[in-house]
Design a protein that fits this description.
The complex is a heterodimer of chains A (about 425) and B (about 90). Chain A is an alpha+beta fold and about 425 residues long. Chain A has helices at about 25-30, 65-70, 75-90, 115-125, 135-140, 145-155, 170-180, 200-210, 220, 245-250, 280-295, 310-325, 340, 350-365, and strands spanning about 10-15, 40, 50, 105-110, 185-195, 240-245, 260-270, 300-305, 335, 365, 390, 395-405, 405-415. Chain A has a single domain (about 10-418), classed as Peroxisomal Thiolase, Chain A, domain 1 (3-Layer(aba) Sandwich), CATH 3.40.47. In chain A, the strands form three sheets. A nine-stranded mixed β-sheet of chain A has the order 4-5-6-1-7-13-12-8-9, with helices on both faces. Chain A has a two-stranded antiparallel sheet with strand order 2-3. Chain A has a two-stranded antiparallel ribbon with strand order 10-11. In chain A, a hairpin with a 3-residue loop joins strand 12 (about 395-405) and strand 13 (about 405-415). In chain A, helix 3 packs across helix 6, helix 7 crosses helix 14 and helix 11 packs across helix 12 (about 310-325). The two termini of chain A are about 20 Å apart. With about 90 residues, chain B is mostly helical. Helix content of chain B is about 60%, strand content about 0%. Chain B has helices at about 5-20, 40-55, 60-65, 70-85. Chain B starts with a helix and ends with a helix. Classes of the chains: A alpha+beta (about 425), B mainly alpha (about 90).
Chain lengths: ~425, ~90
Amino acid sequence: MCSFERRVVVTGLGVVSPVGSTLESAWANLLAGVSGIQLLEELGEDFRCRIGGKVSGLDMTQYLSVKEQQRLDSFCWYAVAAGDQAMAQSGLKTGENIAPERFGTMISSGIGGLATISAQQKRMDQAGPRQVSPLTIPMMIADMASGFVAIRHHLQGPNFGVVSACASGLHSIGEAYWVIKRGDAEAMLAGGAEEGVAASLGIAGFGSMRALSGNNADPTGASRPFDALRDGFVPAAGSGVLVLEELEHAKARGAEILAEVSGYGASGDAYHITAPTADGSGAARAIKIAMEHAELPAEAIGYVNAHGTSTHMNDAVETKALKLALGDHAYHTAISSTKSMTGHMLGAAGGFESVVCVQAIRNRVAPGTINLHNPDPECDLDYLPNASRELPELRHALKVNMGFGGHNAAVIYSRYEG
Amino acid sequence: MDAATVADRVKSIIVEQLGVREDQVVPEARFIEDLNADSLDTVELVMKFEAEFGLPTIPDDVVENMQTVGKAAEYIEKALAEKGEA
């Protein structure tokens, strides 16, 4: 069964995000350059950052009963909604056209149920340990997104989460791709889910790090990746989930193949707890490994969906990484950060942004980077400023994410051409 | 607090906590078999009763025998009486 010749394709996509919670609405908003960032009025004036991307257009009653919602942290709600969408698009039905034990789940969260932890800590402080909810642990553990979604669709294949902060979603897709390649499953539901705005503790913590934008006066203009005046990322909530499927399995059942996963690379900085390696070499290694696996030269990469967080450090270092990995081609490929519109969905980012890459390949157009008005000499590549761009020749898209802890992930999505 | 008031408040807690319809919450309804609760739900439910009625912690052996809606309401009435509130 084990064969690295096995190829892996994408047959389903699902999203929950600040720019929409259906594939169609989110994609249309990204192409139109619509920001999903708003003022978080529930946060006091003493928060450095009072803006964020709440999920938009999501009616959870369509997915879960009230009781089911009460028993899950909201990051799991988003995984459920995106997972349902991806399952529906793929046409896979466990027990009908795929065996339950050959279908696995890897939907990760960088943080897990932080709002649940905060609420229950408060309850314990006020009312004592015996008033702590028995649902505290199942609601807060980050692997519950995979756990619950698997119960819902009866997926008995490999099931766990990957923890790599803001790279969790992309590492999940990469690792799930290998689960299929090595023969342990025919399909995997993979991606990320995160509640980045409901837990005030998270916003306070990232705020104290000076990682967040303080541009509370202009919420929709605050996330400005690669702009000289960028001042931090904008936290957001959401999910992006893909159905990955072994090529012959997908073909045999006549599934629509949306794209192929052609390469995956992972690397570690071993440098600093939060700062990326200053010369970009850490992320560059992940990209190079992905290109080697895909057997593609740098010149083949037609679009890069960047990590592009809008922090001073990330965007400058990522630009260096792209130059190291792609050489002179870095100046010629289209690059954009959709976080300019969605904000930073943390562990969900790699999932959502992978959906963007697949959509770009399918539609031969890439969303732009909004709020990019002031050129930064350290960021001198073509970031598709303020407008989406038709890319009629687009065949290969690169997705990069980097996480606190020095975790780098790169995945290449390709047009499926037989 | 009279028995009817206790029963009403017990019912509304159960409806909210277990996501069931009011007409399902009859005295003989069993939490696990009839109202689709699991062990986590029953613990959470008991905590809600304690908080709602200001009761001291309900001992685990009592909880184990509190298998129906009627038995729960009965225990709460008794506990309130002991507290001097009924």
